Amino acid sequence: MKEQLKQLELFFKSSNFYRGIRLGVGIVIPFTVLYFFGYFEYAPAVVVGVFLNAPGDIPGSVKRKVNAILISIGLTMIITTIILFSKPFLPLLLIAIAVISFVISLISVYGFRASLVSFSGLLAMVLAFAIQKETSQDILVQVALMGIGGLWYLVISYVFQKLAPKKDQNQLLSDTLLLIGEYLKLRAKLLTKKTKRDEILKQTFVLQHQINEKHETLRETLLTVRKRSGRSRYEEKQLLIFISSINIFELIEATHLDYQMIDGIFGERKEFLKASKRLNKIMGNHLIRLSELLIQNDKLPNKDVLLSALSDAYDSIDNYVNTVKLPEAREGALLLRNLYDYQEQLLQEIRAIRRVMANVNDASKVSLKRQDSSQFLTLQEYRLNFLIQNLSLDSTIFRHSLRLTIAIVFAYLLGYFLDIQNTYWILLTLIVIMRPSYGLTKERSIDRIIGTLIGAVISVGIVLITQNVIVYAVLAIVSLIFAFSLIQQNYKSGAALVTISVVFVYSLIHPNAFEVIQFRVIDTIIGATIAVVANYVILPSWEANNLKQVLCNTLKMNNNYLLATQALYHNSTENRHTYNLARKEAFLAISNLNAAFQRLTQDPKSKQKEFQLIYEIVTLNQTMISAIASIGNFIINHKTTPASQEFNVLINKISNTLQLAFDCLEDTQSENQIVEAPVEDAHKKLFGKYEQLSNLRDEHIKQGHTKIDTETLHGLQEAYLIANHMNWLKSLSENLKKATEQYRTALTNS
C-alpha cells in the first residue's frame, strides 16, 4: 500500500500531470468566461483551438516549443478552412483529404517535435468533419476562434512555464536516473545468469535507447539555457546531475565484460562475483530512489548501505586470492579489481548527485564553452531539400504517408457510403494509432481497442448510476486531463480515459449515452482494423529491409569512437573533447540500432528476415562499443603509460576491419585503406608486457613483498586490460565483418 501511495504521489507531482492540468485550465477558463459574458456559443471553437495545439507542447528548448505551437496554430487554421469549404463537394473534399493527409504526415521527417505538429494538422482535418458550419462567415469565425484558442494555449503554456520553470527538466532527469538504475540492475544479472544472457541483452537494448532519448532532450534543454546571461545555481545543479548521469551510463557500458572469459576464469566459483552483482543492484536501487526524490523533494536515503556493499566487493577480491592462491588467481583478481574500480567510480558519481541534491550552494561550477556545448547538440535538419530527399519509396516516412493517405480516404468513403454516423471517429482512430512500423501499429491498435472497451464499461456504469449533466461535465474534463497526462506513458489507460471523456462530452449534447458508447466502440474497432491491415498490405515497411543504413552508421560511429580513443591514449588532455563527442555519436548510433532491432522483433515472424544474423550484428556492435568505452574510461581515470606501437598496430587493424565491414554493406571501396602491419607480433608483445609485469610481481611475492603498491597494481591493470581488450576488439571486428558479409549476401539473394 505504501508503494502504491508513493507512485500516486509521484504521478501527481510529475510534469506529465502538470501538462494535463495545463490543458484542463486552457479548456475550462474559456468555457467559464464566455459563459458568464453571454458568448458561450463561441467557447467550443476556442476550446478546439486549445486542444489541437497542445500536442506540440513537449519538454525541450523554449524557442523550439514556441515555434512548434505557432506553426501548429497556422497549420490547423489553414487545414480546417480547406476542409470546411470543401465539405459540400465530394470530389474536391476527397482531393483535399488526400493532399492534406500526405503532405502533413510527411512533415514527420523533421523529427519528433515535427511529428507532433503533423499530428495536430491531421487532428484538425478529422475534427473539421465534426464542425457544422456552412456559410463563409461562420467558417471564418470558427477558424479565427480556433486561432485565438491556440494563442490562448500558448499564453497558458508560457505562464505555467514561469510558475514551474524547471519541472520538465526535473522530470527528465528523474526519468533518466530511473532508467539508468534499472539498466544497472540488468547489467548485474549478466555476471552470473549464463543461460539468460540473450534475453537480458534484448531488455538492455530497449533501456539503452530510452536513456539516449532522454539524454538528447536534456542536451537540448540544459545546454541551450541562458547562453548569454549565464546559468542560475539551480540550472548548475541540473547540469551537474545530467553530466553525472552521462558518466554513469558510460561506466555501465564500460563494464560490459567478456562474459565467456568470465565463465572460463571463474567456472563454478561464481560466488566471488556475487558481491559485485549485489553492489550493482544496490546502486541501481539507489539511483531509482534519487530519481523519485527529484520529484518528491524528500530526504536523501542513507549512503551507508552503498559504502558497505562497496567494501564487500573489495573484500571479495582478497577472498578470491586467498582461496585460489597466486599466481593462478591473478587473472581473476585483476578482472575483479577492474570491475571494482568501475563500480567505485560509479559510486563516486552517485555520491556527486547526492551532494548536488543535498545542497545547491556546494555544487561545483560547470565550465562549458558555448562553442563546445553546442557541438553536443544534435541539430535537426529543417531545409526543404531534406523533405524533397524523402520523396522516395526508400523513405519509411514517405511510405507511411502514402499508406496513411490511402487508409484515410478509404475509411472516409466507407463511412460515406455506409452512412456511418460518426465517420470521423474512425479517422481519428487511424491517425492516432497508425505508425510507420507494423509492430507498433498493431500494439497500439490492441491497446486502443482494450482501452476503449474499458472506458466504455466504466462509462456505462456511471450512466446507470446517474444522469446528472454536471457530473458528466466534470468527468469529461477530469478524464481528459488524466488522459493527456497518461497517453505517452500508458497508452491503454490513456485510451480508456479519452473514451470516457468523449462519451460524456457527447452525453451533454445527445441524451442517449448508450448509443454514443456503442458507436464509439464499433468505430474504434473499424479504425484499428483498417490501420493494421493497411500497414500489412499497403507499401509495408518491414524493419528487416530498413536496417542497412542504420547498421552502416553504427559501424562508422564505432570506428570513429575507436580512433578517438586511440588519440585519447596518446594525449588525454588535448583529445578529451573530441573523445567525448565521438562517444556521444557512437552511443546515439547504437541506440538507433537497438531501436530498429526492437521494431524488428514486433514485425510478423515471416517478415523477420535473417533475424539471428541481425541479432548477432547488433550484439557485436553493442559489445564493441562497450569494449571501447572500457579502454577510454580506464585512460581517463588512471595515470597510464605511453601508448605502445603494438597498441597502434592493433587499432589500425581493427579500424581497417570495421571499414571493410562498412564498405561491404555500402557496396563501396574505401579510397584510404589502412596499410596493416603484422598483428601477431603486436599481440604477443602486449601479452608479453603483462606477463613480464606478472612475473616481476611473483618475484616480489617470493621476496616477501606481499602487499602490492598502487603503481604496480595500475601497471598490471593497464597491461591486462589493454592486452585482453585489444584481442577482444580484434576478434569482435572480425566476427562483425564476417556477419556483415553474410548479411550482405542475404540481402543480395533476397
Automatic annotation (TrEMBL):
Any Pfam family the entry gives: FUSC_2
Membrane topology: Multi-pass membrane protein
Subcellular location: Cell membrane
Lyase in keyword set: no
Taxonomy, superkingdom: Bacteria
Domain Integral membrane bound transporter: 411-533
InterPro entries: Memb_transporter_dom (IPR049453), YccS_N (IPR032692)
Sequence ranges assigned to domain Integral membrane protein YccS N-terminal in this UniProt record: 70-345
The entry's keywords: Cell membrane, Membrane, Transmembrane, Transmembrane helix
Main localisation: membrane
Transmembrane segments: 21-40, 66-85, 92-110, 116-132, 139-160, 401-418, 453-485, 491-509, 521-542
Keyword Transmembrane helix recorded: yes
Homology family: Belongs to the YccS/YhfK family.
Record's protein name: FUSC family membrane protein
Organism: Psychroserpens luteus
